[in-house]
Amino acid sequence: MSDPDQPLRYVDIGINLGDPVFRGEYHGKQVHEDDMEDIIERAREVGCSKFMVTGSDLEESRHAVDIAQRYPGFCYATVGVHPCQAKHFESFPGGPSKLLEELKTLALESKAAGHTVAFGEIGLDYDRLFLSPMDQQLKYFEAQLDLAVEIQLPLFLHSRAASEDFERLLAPRLAKLPKGGLVHSFTGTLDEMNRLVALGLDIGVNGCSMKTEENLEVVKAIPLERLQIETDGPWCEIRPSHASSKYLEGAPALPKAVRKEKWQKGCMVKGRNEPIAIAHVAHVIAKVKGITATEVCQAAWKNSIRMFGLGEEEEEA
Question: Which sites bind a divalent metal cation 1 (predicted)?
């Protein structure tokens, strides 16, 4: 599905590289050796030349910035507090205003250094209110949106079962954010996608975005100029039970996957998604849209550079 003369270039705009599983640690226990360098090398070999490392709370945002410092020009960070972590604002030493101040300082300093390219992962998640209640999610989504406007960073967004409130809070602020933002790991309806695109937002697609036939209809309808691609590793792999799996015929082969207890160098770990699998995400999108993987990758690359910079000059139209 791709032009053999033109190597594919990928940006994985959502990779949780700070997760301990990428260092061989599961539930606080070291199960196998740290294979982060192998994971990165595998991704580079398939053409994944930019990573956006997701910040999900203050500590993880600092960790994302550290990774970006360690891999300059290749890894870039997002800074923000995920809606499922919103309750931490209330328990933070010094209170919510102190946490917002710490986020602002981290974002400003790391943006100036060229390491942070987006404010997020922020948004609303009404599927998991047991993790953070609705009132706190709303309050601190709004506060972080205002912070992003102040800092002038594009948004890295999360929306689950909350489209009405999500759009209501977002829409009035987008005019003040020239680079807009991206709704990552999108699993919403066709109407929802169309409304977000009408607001000028991009849509991030990974394995979780393509589980059902309904999901695939949405992916088919995403305008190419609004598409970005991701793995969201270590989660959101394409599984055999997903509607998308039937489109994997002819996709680039992935390394053998083994159970974590049977880990061996050069192998993937079962159930641990990693950035090399972005090739499968692009392949499925191409099949669903009836275009080449090259077209998918070129559009997604251009869109990611336009929005986030990532140390590249924006290509002329």
Answer: 121, 232
Domains of the chain, residue spans = 10-308
Residue 184 annotated as binding?
yes
Q: What does the mean pLDDT of the chain come to?
A: 96
Instruction: Read off the pLDDT of residues 205-241 as tens digits, 9 standing for 90 and up.
Output: 999 999 999 999 999 999 999 999 999 999 999 999 9
Q: Does position 316 have pLDDT exceeding 70, yes or no?
A: no
Residue 121 marked ligand-binding: yes
The amino acid at residue 105 is T
294 residue type, one letter? T
Place of tokens 């997604």: 300
Long-range contacts of 211-219 (CB under 8 A, 24+ apart): 211/187, 211/242, 211/243, 211/244, 212/242, 212/243, 213/243, 214/189, 215/187, 215/243, 215/244, 216/243, 216/244, 216/288, 217/190, 218/186, 218/188, 218/189, 218/190, 218/193, 219/285, 219/288, 219/289
Q: Quick: pLDDT tens for 265-308.
A: 999 999 999 999 999 999 999 999 999 999 999 999 999 999 99
